[in-house]
Specification:
With 387 residues, the chain is α/β, with parallel strands linked by helices. Helices cover 45% and strands 17% of the residues.
């Protein structure tokens, strides 16, 4: 009853401020939709974006399936609305630039955000696609993921349901399913069932999530996305997403304020991978990075390992510039902690503390395995040699 009252109140409020549209309807657009449905969609869309401007999104406006993914996409717009600077506060506009039916009860929408500074040409900030669904005389909105992938293939590999266009590498997929189970079990959790969408690059991921263009993410292409709403989008079309599965499961049992990111990245490298792919599209394993580090040290004999670690010097540009030597070394330390103290020791190291992460990390390694700044070089050199 309360929900009906809230919606009724919002509709009344909308009718009183209709002259101040949140979303302008493009004067050039012609929408091949019946007048009543078009008005219902426009009115509900107006209410949704009015809420976004106020920093609140009522889930009643969102379609149930993958609702959390839709909410996360809309939160990007909400953050933009709430974090306007003085230069953009009065010059931002939104337009409904496209609307057309995609089924008997579904309609594709495109909304653009633009900036107009002084006499310069308008600048596109965002273009967002949504799907409006009409059921039981109610309009709800979702990202276009299901619509854009409805002709894709699906295949279950253990707990993972892959969604893809051409084919998948089953060996990689089976490895990921195995690591998903191992990581969850290591942390005392049950492995979750995951939807995994295979995408060529990050821009394709954005598009599936309804973000056709984002000025803040233009040119970004090497990342994946997830885990959100039990959903993953691949890193550069690779079937293994085990690095971020570690962070996902860790977040379920460890408090944010305690999680030491030097440790977590080391665990993610060791139990999973380095997240990014190499030039051949293969995931970069921890063992490979240790071998590369060993070769680097043989050519740079005066290297101070603690400086390499503490300053996170870039030495893997020939594989992938994003890959971290600090996380590689942290992975070796994690392995030693696990060998001597078991999973319980790894969990203690993960919970070493978020603030002053390097100092907190070394304080905990000293407690667990006697590793500190004074003996760091000798211990790590031995670990690298023995690996």
């Amino acid at each position: 009853m309360m929900k009906k009252y809230i919606i009724a109140s919002l509709l009344f409020t909308f009718s009183t401020v209709i002259s101040q549209e949140t979303i302008v309807k493009s004067e050039f657009a012609k929408y091949p939709i019946g007048a009543i449905t078009k008005e219902k969609i426009s009115n509900t869309l107006e209410l949704l974006f009015s809420e976004i401007e106020q920093g609140n999104i009522n889930p009643d406006f969102l379609t149930a399936k993958k609702q959390t993914l839709t909410m996360v996409t809309l939160h990007k717009l909400m953050n933009y609305e709430l974090q306007k600077d003085t230069l953009t506060s009065n010059v931002k506009g939104k337009q409904l630039i496209n609307m057309y039916p995609i089924s008997n009860h579904e309609y594709a929408l495109s909304i653009s955000y633009t900036l107009q500074k002084n006499s310069s040409l308008p600048t596109i900030v965002y273009v967002v696609n949504l799907v409006a669904t009409e059921r039981d005389k109610k309009i709800t909105f979702s990202i276009p993921l299901e619509y854009q992938t409805k002709y894709w293939h699906t295949e279950e590999i253990g707990n993972i349901t892959y969604h893809y266009r051409g084919k998948i590498n089953k060996e990689r997929a089976q490895l990921f399913d195995k690591k998903n189970t191992q990581i969850a079990n290591n942390l005392g959790l049950k492995p979750e069932k995951i939807d995994f969408y295979m995408c060529d690059n990050f821009q394709e991921i954005l598009n599936l999530r309804g973000i056709v263009y984002s000025v803040k993410e233009k040119g970004k292409y090497k990342d994946g996305y997830g885990v959100v709403d039990k959903t993953i989008f691949s890193v550069m079309n690779n079937e293994d997403f085990s690095h971020d599965m570690l962070h996902y499961y860790s977040g379920k049992i460890n408090e944010r304020k305690n999680r030491n990111w030097i440790t977590e990245e080391g665990v993610a490298y060791s139990w999973g991978n380095a997240y990014y792919t190499d030039t051949n599209g293969e995931m970069i394993t921890h063992n490979r990075l240790v071998d590369e580090l060993k070769e680097y040290l043989s050519k740079n004999t005066n290297t101070n390992l603690f400086e390499l670690f503490s300053e996170n010097v870039k030495i893997f540009d020939h594989i992938a510039p994003e890959v971290s030597v600090r996380s590689t070394i942290s992975g070796l330390i994690v392995n030693l902690v696990q060998k001597k103290q078991g999973i319980e020791g790894v969990l203690k190291l993960i919970n070493a503390g978020r603030q002053n992460k390097l100092e907190s990390f070394l304080k905990k390694t000293n407690e667990l395995i006697g590793l500190n700044q004074n003996n760091f070089n000798s211990i790590i050199e031995k670990l690298i040699t023995e690996n």
